[in-house]
Amino acid sequence: MLNRLFPNIYEGWIIVIASGFVMMLSGSTFFYGLSAIFTSLLIDFNWSVASTSLAFSLRTEVQGLTGPIIGLSIDRLGPRFTIIVGILIAGFALFALSFITNLFQFYVVMLISALGIGAAGGQVGMAAVATWFDKKRSRALSIMTVGGGISGALVFFVAWLVELYGWRTAVQILSIYYIIIGLFFALNIRSRPQDHHQPMDGIPKMHSEEEENQILGMSSKDALKTRGFWSIAFGTSFCLFAGVPIILLTIPFLESLGYSKTLASIAMIAFTVSTVVGRLGSGYLADKYGNKLILTIGYLLVSIGTIGLFFANDIYVTMIFLFICGPGFGASIPIRASIIAEYFGTINFGTINGFCVFVSTLGAVIGPWIVGKMVDVSGEYSYGWLVAGLAAFLAVPALIFAEKPSQMIK
User: Fold this and answer.
1) 400 burial class (0-12, 13-18, 19+ CB within 10 angstroms)?
2) What is the rounded CA–CA span in Å between residue 264 and residue 262?
3) Cα(50)–Cα(54) distance, integer angstroms
4) Alpha helix ranges (H) inside 154-212
5) b vs e for 13-52, b when ≥16 Cβ sit within 10 Å of the residue's Cβ?
6) Of 24, 67, 96, 217, which cross-links 151 as Cys (Cβ 3.0–4.6 Å)?
7) Which pLDDT belongs to residue 209?
8) 265, 156 in Cβ contact below 8 A?
9) DSSP state, residue 29
10) Quick one: pLDDT at residue 212?
11) Mean pLDDT in runs of 10 for the chain (410 residues)?
12) Per-residue pLDDT, 36
């Protein structure tokens, strides 16, 4: 669709923009947006922080468990088919969320939404974008993931909808907007055909077209046997142990300090704006200095920022440490995908990345539950932030042990 309207633009950049918009929609409704109804659920149903957080953790776990299946779907059926099905499932599950009356129904709806959002999330867009770029892959992936960063800023709009109409009506509005706009951009996403008329990266090469279009890669079976894969996967898991609780619990944390939902959402906007800086800056720096170095620095920033929240007792100190954590977390998203493409190629990128999502989801599931449990026991968030930050630090030595495989197939 859009490539016909803009025939002189390299189609890879159109894929980047379309994937970025879908990522923005998914993030603003599911990843960041649902944190705005967290406290409303606690009040309406009198649930504990841990039991409510567990639903979000289970949603993340299902996304991880289906990661390899989604990756296989991307490689076999194509990213366009995969993402369209995902948007439809996630959108209707979000609408169903507005009708829940108990915790069991909440868990069921969150699990169904996870099936959809896993197929409509960044995993699909990254797999498509990675096939369109070589020299500028990190930059392209970082620009694409800016959509996820911008989505965090939209949590202010979600919080406003919740306060104006109530969380049930707000969720219904979000589901309709997600399906309609999401499908439009999903129709523009596809992997690069090997015989595509435009040169890789959109830059004319001196060598032959046959050489230019050669795609290197490694089988998923061989990738799983390497130390590099497991180092990247566990490093991502440790990072998510801290990153997901920050996204999910920052607004409830500030509300516990006496701030309104709308004011608390401003701190989340500050965090997401800083992730955009990390996403964009890391793409340029990784293409220049290497993915491994920039990703290691990103993990270190996440650890320092999360540990710093242990000392936060007002919104201003909270925002300072979110500004430290944000760029690191933002950098980890595109550069993790870029280093997988660098180490294992793009032939089976979807499947290999899916297995990485499967392994790394462990931290995304355990992190929010442990922090939530510590809040229920102690009545405060500080020790939960400390534990999450220390766990995130383990990502640094994990990544240091990552080694690039010596050979890939054509």
Assistant:
1) exposed
2) 5
3) 6
4) 155-165, 167-186, 209-212
5) bbbbbbbbbbbbbbbbbbbbbbbbbbbbbbeeeebebbbb
6) 24
7) 45
8) yes
9) I
10) 46
11) 77 93 87 78 85 74 78 89 94 94 91 86 87 89 84 79 90 92 93 86 64 64 91 95 89 88 81 87 89 95 96 92 94 91 87 88 86 88 94 94 72
12) 79
Q: Which stretches does DSSP call E strand in 65-220?
A: none
- Per-residue pLDDT, 360: 87
Q: Which residues does 90 contact at the CB level (< 8 Å), separation at least 6? A: 26, 30, 113, 115, 116, 117, 119, 120, 178
133: DSSP letter: -
Report the chain's terminal Cα–Cα distance, integer Å: 31
The tokens for 383 are 């020790």
pLDDT at 61: 65
Beta strands (DSSP E) in 186-309 are none
- Residue 230 CA to residue 352 CA, distance in Å, equals 11
Map residue 196 onto helix, strand or coil: coil
Residues with Cβ within 8 Å of 143's Cβ and at least 6 positions away in sequence, in order, are: 16, 20, 279, 280, 283
**Residue showing tokens 């032939």:** 347
Amino acid at 293: L
Residue 305 belongs to what H/E stretch? helix 291-308
Amino acid type, 304: I
**Burial level of 288, CB count in 10 A (0-12/13-18/19+)?**
exposed
Residue 180: CB atoms within 10 A of its CB come to 12
